[in-house]
Amino acid sequence: MDKLAQRVIRPAVEAIGLQWYGWHGFRRGIASNLYALGASDKAVQRVLRHARPHVTKERYIKTFDTSVFEAMERLQATVEVLEQSPAIGQQVPAEVRAKLLIPNRGEMAEWPKAAVC
User: Fold this and answer.
1) 117 and 19 in contact (C-beta within 8 Å)?
2) Largest alpha-carbon pair distance within the chain?
3) Does residue 83 have a pLDDT over 70?
4) b/e per residue 78-108 (b: at least 16 CB within 10 A)
5) CB neighbours of residue 56 within 10 Å
6) What does pLDDT average to over the chain?
7) Residue 108, pLDDT score
8) pLDDT (tens digit, 9 = 90+) per residue, 12-47?
């Protein structure tokens, strides 16, 4: 499976500008996207081959809250504007600015440009 990820999946994911976060992130992305497309949690459980549905629902299915996503996009736009301002750009060290928006591994809710993996 690791060779499949290394030779096929990871290059395909990176070719479209996303990051590979490993098999767990990949499976969470599959579960979350299937659920968002209308699949029942039971169907997602079967696709992931989990023995217990609560594992799928609690650990793998991450729902997308559009209001959180939109708020983070507005914050991202504000941070980018502030970074371009000479007064702000000189006052805030680069390492602090870089920490404002950190992508969560395998999630998308808090980072507008991260992969749903």
Assistant:
1) yes
2) 56
3) yes
4) eeeeeeeeeeeeeeeeeeeeeeebeeeebbb
5) 23
6) 78
7) 44
8) 988 998 888 888 888 998 999 999 899 998 999 999
Q: Please state the pTM of the whole predicted model.
A: 0.55
Judge whether 39 and 57 are in contact, CB under 8 Å.
Answer: no
User: 8-35 in b/e burial notation, b at 16+ Cβ within 10 A?
Assistant: eebeebeeeebebbeeebbbbbbbbbbb
* The three-state (H, E, C) secondary structure of 59-109, written as one string: HHCCCCCHHHHHHHHHHHHHHHHHHHCHHHHHHCCHHHHHHHCCCCCCCCC
Block residue for tokens 């980018």? 80
